[in-house]
Amino acid sequence: MLASCLPPATMTVVGAKCRDFIKPLSGCEQPLIACSRLAVFYVPKEWYIGKMKKRLVIANWKMYIQSPEAAKGFVAGLKRKTKNINNVEVWIAPPFTVLPLLKGVKVGAQTVAAHAEGAYTGDVSATMVKHAGASFAIIGHSERRAFGLTNEQVHAQLAAAAGAGLVPVLCVGERERTQDGSHFSVIEEQLTSALRGAQSLSSKLVVAYEPVWAIGKSAAEAMQQEELQETVIFIRKILADILGRAGARKVRILYGGSVEGANAHPLITEGGVGGFLVGHASAELDSFVEILKACQK
Ligand code: PEP
To answer: Which of 11, 69, 102, 214 has the highest local Cβ count within 10 Å?
Structure first.
């Protein structure tokens, strides 16, 4: 069969819905086989993995690590235990209150306000977190979308973060997967609305693909690498539509959703991502270090 002539690393199986989106990238991939449900395409791996040499792992501490002592102790332990890990970049998104206290590691905010300043009680602006030492901000996390954050507000937050000189880590992901592939439309809508007018951002942008159904569970319930790879190709294609192909290749695409020591290696080697956004396992030092070790090349 024709498909078996190609090296496995350059081949991928994509669902019919996804195929419709990928087809227009002529010259990049050739459909080899098509049947009613699945199609096999030739997609060079370097195209969808992007251009970054180092893998990036971001710890999203949520509200897990609360005291200054625990936060500083974690960072000290992390430095000790990762001395020999050279080719993985680690960023930490702690709660606002401990963000300015963490030294010697790249830190960022878990969210920022959509507005630059003004009468917004309780909000924290991108400029404020920048002053506190942040160099990036998570934007549009599903746990914030669950509290009513709209695509429009995500767009405004992303613009505010970028305007203040923070690298936006834009989270996208479907609540559920459906047989007809409608989850691809959800992801496309989230990307296009958030990145409207953001063409100049590409080398500064990180996209975290976080399927909501896979968050906060265990490695056994997380997404499988084959499904992840298909979605990453799709995301890269949508980014190419928005940012242009050269711009899209500069964007780092991460996966988040129950990454643990047990599934980090197959996801990073076969999932087509450039790293992870890690939730619960990032708040436990040994689990987090296990993930970082799995990401070494
Ligand atoms: C997250 O909330 O960003 C996340 C990936 O969480 P977890 O790893 O706990 O699924």
So the answer is: 214
